[in-house]
Write a structure and sequence with these properties.
The complex is a heterodimer of chains A (924) and B (438).
Chain A: H1 14-22, H2 27-43, H3 51-56, H4 63-76, H5 81-84, H6 88-94, H7 100-112, H8 116-130, H9 135-151, H10 153-158, H11 161-168, H12 174-190, H13 201-211, H14 216-226, H15 234-244, H16 253-267, H17 275-291, H18 296-312, H19 332-345, H20 351-361, H21 367-383, H22 388-400, H23 404-420, H24 429-434, H25 442-454, H26 462-470, H27 478-494, H28 500-511, H29 517-532, H30 534-541, H31 557-564, H32 570-574, H33 628-634, H34 661-670, H35 677-683, E1 727-730, E2 738-747, E3 750-759, E4 770-772, E5 780-781, E6 796-804, E7 820-822, E8 838-842, H36 848-857, E9 861-868, E10 871-879, E11 885-892, E12 898-905, H37 911-923
Helix pairs in contact in A: 1-2, 2-4, 4-7, 6-7, 7-8, 7-9, 8-9, 9-12, 11-12, 12-13, 12-14, 13-14, 14-16, 15-16, 16-17, 18-19, 18-31, 19-21, 20-21, 21-22, 21-23, 22-23, 23-25, 25-27, 26-27, 27-28, 27-29, 27-30, 28-29, 29-30
Chain B: E1 4-8, E2 14-19, H1 26-37, E3 47-50, E4 53-60, E5 63-69, H2 75-93, H3 98-103, H4 105-115, E6 116-117, E7 120-121, H5 126-129, H6 143-154, E8 170-183, E9 189-203, E10 209-214, H7 217-226, E11 248-251, H8 257-263, E12 266-268, E13 273-282, E14 290-299, E15 303-312, E16 319-328, E17 333-340, E18 344-348, E19 353-362, E20 366-375, E21 389-395, E22 404-410, E23 422-436
Parallel strand pairs in B: 8-23
Antiparallel strand pairs in B: 1-2, 1-5, 3-4, 4-5, 6-7, 8-9, 9-13, 10-12, 10-22, 11-13, 14-15, 15-20, 16-19, 16-21, 17-20, 18-19, 21-23
The chains are: A alpha+beta (924), B alpha+beta (438).
């Protein structure tokens, strides 16, 4: 019983003694000795020199001793490969043993010995064991295939073990099925495209049957595997969901979470308005809440996942905010997560309760938690406008407590409240100023300085306050220095008479005495701005700022979708995609939410990721992870007349030196586009044709149709870009027998409408004319319709009509609506684009340079290109005929047919069409 | 999947180290010790990522169990497995302590070999494991026994073996509830829920098919509509609510979940001996057994006056037991004077609290404690956080209102019927986190 004594031997000749004991004649003694060896091994001592002696003990009937020897072998075989061979015979013999427990033990252990020579001998016994009559042996053999694959993948394929494993999916024993699924899932992770698992409806059915019968762990393997399946239609998705939902009542939280994962994924495929969809949503909420009554560690995992679920489908838990109230004895990691979710669920309906809670939390002991609670109050104020006043007064109460870190945190959030509700709560500035001295953290100091600068005209002693910060200018962090510089410039522009000295002081501190390039640059910008044209300076520095968005800390939608596919796993705990923390080939394959089929006809964009998902448009997300596009386009969000803040235009700063400000600003303002001046001027070739419009139908037009007057039916697409195939615009039944099909193209910078008129009536037709209604792009024909001969029955004629964009512009709804009348009446998707959306599209595998080449043919220009984590990021720009600029970020993974497209534009309506354009151009 | 499993003592010495995957090396053992066990700050998360290796840990008394992986594993599963591992160890050798682990390290290795294969959890039901892994060495088994073991370990009913016989067929049902409450100082219920468990101890012969019924609102409503006769309705009588709304419930793996989902009936073949049949949660119409009314008054900077009234709110014929009220005191307390009407009250300086204990209290009664707390003057600006007043008790009824209506046993192969089974039902309501802010 008391095995602990084996831990205590610590004499000099220990190894020697053990050697002697291992060779003792008495069985009992030998067993004792092996136990000592294992104990030494556990503690980390090197007992590999005893290898031959231990292996000698292997030939025994005593199962306990045998297991100990095997344990030793697994640890040291790799360091002694030659001697490990000695054990092979014994293994092979054990695989034939009449006792199934011993057969399984042998095959299990053999798979853990990572020595090439041994694995060779493993094949035959493994093959037998995969077909063993005893399920216990089969389930062990199934896992062994995965082990072998990890050592020698090629061998597993050559020996046909994968097929045997697939056969086991149909096994009569549920545990064998579960282990086979686990093994296959693991193996297929290293071959993302091989479709090893071959998930078809028959197999899925087998899995669902086994799901009801196998152990809790087996259920997890099966559910995790099911979540990778893409049902072919909503009916299949629904029937799988129906059979998975009972798992939500399982006592094992991992079973529940894996079931939730399957359901969350398949919800994408169900029609939103169906009853089943809504019942399913309702069914998801109670089990999630129940997870919170588990042990704290599981609660933590559950909360991290709920955080994702709440962002993806807020409706599931919106009624349940109370369960996220923090308990006094919760571990800190549970408290912090609950707080996060509380803020996400806060709404006008529950804000009073939430605020009362947050106020309680702000008096707790844990500093991090208290800070987060204070921050949460601020976020509530920003999120729920009606509560802002109460939040502010709560924050003021907290400031009165004078607890240092509470005050600092409160000031940081009050700054954000000021930014959200300008000119509303300035009365509290006086209170804030009282606490100036106690601020010692850069964040809080910067926040306070910003407030003083922003409201300098209302603070009598603003100059004194700011001057006091100036004293230790060089000891401050960069953040504080930059804010201070800006604040003093603001102050100067508001009260120029009294503060000239101060501004000179700060400018010289920033430009002459500082080594920080950011600070110097910003200093110089202000300096030149102020000395060249104070009026413009005022316009620039004191311009109105865009309001800050409500929701912060949201996970980027594509990442969120990917994480939803990983519910329950580590990725969902870290909120990072697996390749961020997993090495090697595992997890590189990115998962996507399934896409609902058949929505193309309904006018919904066929490429948007989750039509059912009420995702916030990405523009409200503050880009977090070095998203270059986001940075570039922040400029875009400003009001059209002003560049929001000069300070954020570091790219263009060089040009400012020679009084270039005017030209920079002026030039751009003249263009009527307030966005991305730096990018536009530096990178876009001046020859960008004016008439660019990238639609598959009307405008993306540069084909190789050479001769206008040649009525060519087979167009030779030689040089130009992509032209969408002609589609039927006007079916014959609607127009008394005249069928018109057409497309738009562009040749030599000229836009054409290519049409084919077909007479399907019995009489001939004459007197063709065409007229364009007012449309969003001002498109008009330049010549009358060049059909002069009558159109005979069942004859068709091809016509190319040159177009111009000088016509009257009228915004149409939808934007792409172009109405053309005559004998012709039709609607055309007319391409314009949207603010910022994302889409995952399918694309034939090709390299990024071919992609950019292809796109260039269609006048989508690549501005910049970089490579992030093996993905090519292309930044592209395009302009529509009506002067709307679009910036696009195209993310391409070599070897993966999927690509991700993000767009930024001031006209949000157009995005959908741009996606269509990209899709059709790239697929072509 | 799980790459390795380590058990440490409180000093960070390794007691058990079992590696399942090649990507986990010996250095992982040290990484966890250095970064988590010996970390300066309190651990902020049960999942730690050190150099692309993830560590999941749980602590039992002063023993650390850590599972290690380099892959994107199912995190919930890893924790569930660690809990299960603790359960299995407790079932084999009692309390998880350094001494017990050292004494049973061979057994633990054997268990670890069996219940985790290549990091995939296998059957971990103690009932099944005990048939072939024992502390007293392995008995030689006959061929029938061997195949019985393997079919049980892998089979559909992995939790019960065939051929069990009892002279007296008997079963015990315990309805154990813990009632949780968070109340504002003004007496407003901020949150309240009951988490309950139905624990079943059965000594039944053969493979009995059981059916369990309770006053679940959904079932009762359905029966009411259908006009079906309520065979066991009489047992549910005796005052209180007719039916209760269950927010959610989870079941032991022996319960047929698809049947519950379809018909909401709870049918199963129970494991032999004790098992937790179901867990449930209710939030509606909870009977709160006690009401705590706090009154805290700060008299100047150096004195606090506290008065707490507790009221019992259940039938006068019932008795609550083991009542304990814990009133937190500030850290700078120098002295406390307590007067209570009933029971004993004591100031415990080490716990910063006044602990008031009452052995028994009947329903619809009231009791009161008042205390004067002397404070040392401090220049600490931070106000005292005023932790909530917490309470512990045990009552002989189910605060959720749950009633067992029937538990029927069918064993067609053996000659005993439902009537021959002796059945016992007991209700215990305990306090979970029962707090009132003051």
């Amino acid at each position: 019983m008391t095995d602990s004594k084996y831990f205590t031997t610590n004499k000099k000749g220990e190894i020697f003694e053990l050697k002697a004991e291992l060779n003792n004649e008495k069985k009992e003694k030998r067993k004792e000795a092996v136990k000592k060896v294992i104990a030494a091994m556990t503690v980390g001592k090197d007992v590999s020199s005893l290898f031959p002696d231990v292996v000698n003990c292997m030939q025994t009937d005593n199962l306990e001793l045998k297991k100990l020897v095997y344990l030793y072998l697994m640890n040291y075989a790799k360091s002694q490969p030659d001697m490990a061979i000695m054990a092979v015979n014994s293994f092979v013999k054990d695989c034939e043993d009449p006792n199934p427990l011993i057969r399984a033990l042998a095959v299990r252990t053999m798979g853990c010995i990572r020595v090439d020579k041994i694995t060779e001998y493993l094949c035959e016994p493994l093959r037998k064991c995969l077909k063993d009559e005893d399920p216990y042996v089969r389930k062990t053999a199934a896992v062994c295939v995965a082990k072998l694959h990890d050592i020698n993948a090629q061998m597993v394929e050559d020996q046909g073990f994968l097929d045997s494993l697939r056969d086991l999916i149909a096994d009569s024993n549920p545990m064998v099925v579960a282990n086979a699924v686990a093994a296959l899932s693991e193996i297929s992770e290293s071959h993302p495209n091989s479709n090893l698992l071959d998930l078809n409806p028959q197999n899925i059915n087998k899995l669902l049957t086994a799901l009801n019968e196998c152990t809790e762990w087996g259920q997890i393997f099966i559910l995790d595997c099911l979540s990778n399946y893409n049902p072919k239609d909503e009916r299949e998705a629904q029937s799988i969901c129906e059979r998975v939902t009972p798992r939500l009542s399982h006592a094992n939280s991992a079973v529940v979470l894996s079931a939730v994962k399957v359901l969350m994924k398949f919800l994408e495929l169900l029609p939103k308005e169906s009853d089943y969809y809504n019942t399913l949503l309702k069914k998801l909420s109670p089990p999630l809440v129940t997870l919170l009554s588990g042990e704290p560690e599981v609660q933590y995992v559950a909360l991290r996942n709920i955080n994702l679920i709440v962002q993806k489908r807020p409706e599931i838990l919106k009624q349940e905010i109370k369960v996220f109230f923090v308990k006094y004895n919760d571990p800190i990691y549970v408290k912090l997560e609950k707080l996060d979710i509380m803020i996400r669920l806060a709404s006008q309906a529950n804000i009073a309760q939430v605020l009362a809670e947050l106020k309680e939390y702000a008096t707790e002991v844990d500093v991090d938690f208290v800070r987060k609670a204070v921050r949460a109050i601020g976020r509530c104020a920003i999120k729920v406008e009606q509560s802002a006043e109460r939040c502010v007064s709560t924050l003021l109460d907290l400031i009165q407590t004078k607890v240092n870190y509470v005050v600092q945190e409160a000031i940081v959030v009050i700054r954000d409240i000021f930014r959200k509700y300008p000119n509303k709560y300035e009365s509290i500035i006086a209170t804030l100023c009282e606490n100036l001295d106690s601020l010692d953290e850069p964040d809080a100091r910067a926040a306070m300085i910003w407030i003083v600068g922003e409201y300098a005209e209302r603070i009598d002693n603003a100059d004194e306050l700011l001057e006091s910060f100036l004293e230790g200018f060089h000891d401050e962090s960069t953040q504080v220095q930059l804010t201070l510089l800006t604040a003093i410039v603001k102050l100067f522009l508001k009260k120029p008479s009294e503060t000239q000295e101060l501004v000179q002081q700060v400018l010289s501190l920033a430009t002459q005495d500082s080594d920080n390039p950011d600070l110097r640059d910003r200093g110089y910008i202000y300096w030149r701005l102020l000395s060249t044209d104070p009026v413009t300076a005022k316009e620039v520095v004191l311009s109105e700022k865009p309001l800050i968005s409500e929701e912060t800390d949201l996970i980027e939608p594509t990442l969120l979708d990917e994480l939803i596919c990983h519910i329950g796993s580590l990725a969902s705990v870290y909120h990072k995609p697996p390749n961020a923390f997993v090495e090697g080939s595992h997890g590189i394959h990115r998962k996507h939410l399934p896409i609902q089929h058949g929505s193309i006809d309904t006018g919904e964009s066929p490429v948007s990721t989750g039509p059912a998902a009420p995702i916030e448009p990405a523009q409200s997300v503050i880009p977090s992870q070095g998203d270059l596009l986001g940075d570039l386009l922040n400029l875009d969000l400003g009001p059209p007349v002003n560049v929001p803040q000069v300070s954020s235009m570091q790219m263009g700063a060089v040009d400012l030196l020679g009084g270039g400000l005017d030209s920079l600003l002026g030039g751009d303002l003249g263009g009527g586009v307030g966005g991305s001046p730096a990018v536009g001027q530096n990178f876009i070739p001046s020859s960008v044709p004016n008439t660019f419009a990238p639609s598959p139908t009307p405008a993306a037009l540069s084909s190789g149709l050479n001769d206008l007057f040649e009525l060519s039916t087979g167009m030779a697409v030689t040089t130009g870009g992509y032209v969408a195939p002609k589609t039927v615009w006007l079916p014959a039944v609607k127009a008394k027998g005249l069928e018109i099909s057409g497309t738009f193209s562009r040749r030599q910078g000229q836009m054409y409408m290519d049409m084919t008129f077909t007479n399907k009536a019995l009489q001939h037709m004459t007197d063709f004319a065409i007229q364009f209604n007012k449309n969003s792009f001002g498109v008009i024909p330049t010549t009358p319709l060049p059909i002069h001969t009558p159109l005979m029955p069942s004859q068709s004629i091809d016509v190319s009509l040159p177009l111009n964009t000088i016509g009257p512009v009228m915004k149409m709804d939808p934007l792409n609506n172009l109405q053309v009348t005559s004998n012709v009446h039709r609607m055309v998707p007319w391409s314009v684009l949207g603010k910022s959306r994302r889409a995952d599209l399918q694309r034939p595998i090709s390299q990024s340079h071919t992609v950019s080449g292809k796109l260039q043919n269609d006048n989508i220009y690549t501005i910049a290109k970089r490579n992030v984590e093996g993905q090519d990021m292309l930044y592209q720009s395009l302009k529509l005929t009506n002067g709307i600029w679009i910036l696009a970020e195209l993310r391409i993974q070599p070897g993966n047919p999927n690509y991700t497209l993000s767009l930024k534009c001031r006209a949000p309506e157009v995005s959908q069409y741009v996606y269509q354009v990209y899709d059709s151009v790239l697929k072509n | 999947m799980i790459g390795g499993l380590f058990i440490y003592n409180h000093k960070g010495e390794v007691l058990i180290s079992r590696v399942y995957r090649d990507d986990i090396g010996r250095n992982a053992v040290d990484a966890f010790r250095v970064n988590v066990i010996h970390a300066r700050q309190q651990v902020r998360s049960p999942v730690t990522n050190i150099a692309r290796t993830s560590f999941f840990h749980v602590k039992r008394s002063n023993i650390w169990l850590a599972a290690v992986t380099k892959q994107n594993v199912n995190a919930a599963m890893v924790f569930e497995f660690l809990y299960k591992m603790c359960d299995v160890m407790t079932a084999y050798f009692g309390k998880i302590s350094e001494e017990n682990i050292k004494n049973n390290f061979v057994l633990i290795y054997e268990l670890l070999d069996e219940i985790l294969d290549f990091g995939y959890p296998q059957n971990s039901e103690t009932g099944a494991l005990k048939t072939f892994i024992t502390q007293t060495g392995i008995k030689s088994q006959s061929k029938e026994e061997q195949s019985q073991i393997t079919s049980q370990v892998t089979g559909q009913i992995g939790w019960r073996r065939e051929g069990i016989k009892y002279r007296r067929n008997e079963l015990f049902l315990d309805v154990l509830e813990s009632v949780n409450l968070l109340m504002s100082p003004q007496g407003q219920v901020l949150s309240a829920h009951v988490s309950g468990r139905v624990v079943m101890k059965s000594y039944l012969s053969g493979m009995p098919e059981c059916k369990f019924g309770m006053n679940d609102k959904i079932v009762i409503d359905k029966q009411g509509k259908g006009g079906a006769t309520d065979e066991a309705g009489k047992s549910g009588g005796g005052g209180g609510k007719q039916s209760i709304a269950i927010d959610d419930c989870t079941f032991h793996q022996c319960v047929r979940l698809s049947k519950f989902d379809a018909e909401r009936s709870i049918s199963f073949i129970p494991p032999d001996g004790e098992c937790e049949l179901m867990r449930y949660r209710t939030t509606k119409d909870i009977i709160l057994p006690f009401r705590v009314i706090p009154l805290v008054r700060e008299v100047g900077r150096t004195k606090l006056e506290v008065k707490v009234v507790i009221k019992s709110n259940f039938k006068p014929s019932l008795l609550a037991q083991k009542i304990e009220v814990r009133i937190p005191t500030p850290l700078n307390t120098s002295g406390v004077q307590v007067i209570c009407m009933k029971g004993k009250a004591k100031y415990k300086a080490s716990e910063n609290a006044i602990v008031w204990k009452i052995k028994r209290m009947a329903g619809m009664k009231e009791s009161q404690i008042s205390a004067e707390i002397e404070l040392l003057p401090t220049n600490d600006k931070k106000k005292w956080a005023r932790p909530p007043i917490s309470m512990n008790f045990e009552v002989p009824f189910a605060p959720s209102g749950l009633k067992v209506r029937y538990l029927k046993v069918f064993e067609p192969k053996l000659n005993y019927s439902d009537h021959d089974v002796i059945k016992w039902v007991r209700y215990i309501g305990r306090s979970g986190i029962y707090e009132t802010r003051c």
